[in-house]
Amino acid sequence: MNIERKDSIVALVKSVSADAEIRWTTDDKDNDYGWVEVPTAADLVPMAKGLVPLSGRLVTITAHAPQNPSEKGFYEVCYHFVVKGTTLTLRVVPEGTTPTVPSITPYHKAADWAEREIHELYQIEISGHPNPRPLFLTNETQPKAMERLVPLSTMGNGACTNTLWEKIMGDKSGEVVH
Amino acid sequence: MGNFTIPVGPLHVALEEPMYFQVNVEGEIVKGIEMYAGNAHRGMEALARERNLFQNVVLTERVCSLCSNNHPLTYCMSVEHVAGIEVPERALYLRTIADEVKRIASHMFNVGIGIHVIGFASLFMHAMELREKMQDLKETVWGNRMDICANIIGGAKYDLTDDLIAYMKQTLEEIKKPCEEFLHIYLTHPQIKARTEGIGMFPYEQAVYHGSVGPVARASNLNNDVRRETPYAAYDRVKFDVVTETGCDVRSRAIVRLREIFESISILEQCLRDIPAGPTVCNPLPEIPAGEAVSRSEAPRGELIYYLRTNGTLKPERLKWRVPTYVNWEALRVMLKDCKVADIALIVNSIDPCLSCTER
């Protein structure tokens, strides 16, 4: 384990929030993995910003529905960084009336697409994103698409064929077919 | 001089996969682009939650055919990390061998397509002929040309006999000289130089800012090879150089890939020489407990990362992956700025883009 690198990460996290919980794991090659519970969404930006001078690089962002959700039932958001070979995950629960996290794209360009993706697939608002355009879906598609996915087996079992066909014909002719 | 918006894609002769670019041009000079993804989205992360941990080895192999060994490998590493599974020594070497064979074939394919785009038909066919050697090798050793099913949770799904090891060594010996000749032509041919040098510039500072990975980053002198940075499989037991270039252009990205082929051959030779005897899989496997893990590997296009969370059941609570192309797309805004329309396809190809990976 690289003690110096680990210490610099701990110092950064604690300088932003003394309440942040940090734990460490290693794999069979002695690679280090840090896991941080970030107390508030507001702490995320200074931590992400502080990782830049440590050569921290955002790798990806995961939105996740935890087994034991928060009071509001919001998804968790995990920000995965790599700091010179040490993997660091910052876990944040979105805040606000609708789930919202601040954008870290100004400091980590790699967050651009990842933030847009979690917005359109999980309806998590990203405040301050420089280019909040949908990534995969068209503007007409309602958000939270991943959670509303209709399994192919349900589509294929014939149960919804009439409904689907009537909708298509209704849309085409401009009137609802009965 | 007029301003126009040119649509490129989603289906286009020079694009291997569907991506839609809106290119704003002033005369024949590109002034800006907008990218629209979503044509190959299959909802694979949602599918992964509906399958058990073992079925997901098969699912992840189908994310992409060119990186099809790295996906199940990295996924298996994340499960092994959660459960504390110790992979046998022989399996670590077997995994490395499968990884490097796929890398040679993938790199040769990308460089070949780049040469095809600039209209050098004979050298393109030469590249495909060399790649075909690797395809034949895969078919002989694993029984398939793309999805080779080399990995399993806790080890490797295949084994090598002495005959197969001898065959692989012979094949590697056979491709060395043609690969050297190929690199020599690439480095010296005036047509290739004229079309690739100084094209699609992506400076080091931009590579750092974008968090770029793989040959795209290394061609801008940014060294972040996961095999060296965070060793896995048998990469801590073999000697190899991380190839970097300073040209920051289309040419450098191809040269990085071509030079990496020689490193892959060297890694393969070391593995085939040093592979220890013993079991190829951890048996019996322990229960997979509740937990979470991040694992990374160096796919042909760059760093691949998997995040797995388990809850003690056989189905993963969350499985997320990010492929190298995903972070390299935004680099195109920098590379395509002020280039000529004729170079668009060449520059897009130089990041070795993969849509099926990007959209999952």
From TrEMBL, chain A:
Keywords: Ubiquinone. Residues 57-143 form the NADH:ubiquinone oxidoreductase 30kDa subunit domain. Pfam families: Complex1_30kDa (PF00329). InterPro entries: NADH_quin_OxRdtase_su_C/D-like, NADH_UbQ_OxRdtase_30kDa_su. GO terms for molecular function: NADH dehydrogenase (ubiquinone) activity. Gene3D superfamilies: NADH:ubiquinone oxidoreductase, 30kDa subunit. This is NADH:ubiquinone oxidoreductase subunit C. It comes from Desulfobaculum xiamenense.
TrEMBL record, chain B:
Fe cation binds at C67, C357. Ni(2+) binds at C64, C67, C354. Gene3D superfamilies: Cytochrome-c3 Hydrogenase, chain B. The keyword Chloroplast does not apply. Mg(2+) binds at E45. Its cofactor is Fe cation; Ni(2+). Keywords: Iron, Magnesium, Metal-binding, Nickel, Oxidoreductase. The keyword tRNA processing does not apply. One of its GO terms (molecular function) is oxidoreductase activity, acting on NAD(P)H. InterPro entries: ComplexI_49kDa-like, NADH_Q_OxRdtase_suD, Ni-dep_hyd_lsu, NiFe-Hase_large. Residues 118-281, 287-360 form the NADH-quinone oxidoreductase subunit D domain. It comes from the Bacteria. Coiled coil: none annotated. This is Ni,Fe-hydrogenase III large subunit. It comes from Desulfobaculum xiamenense.
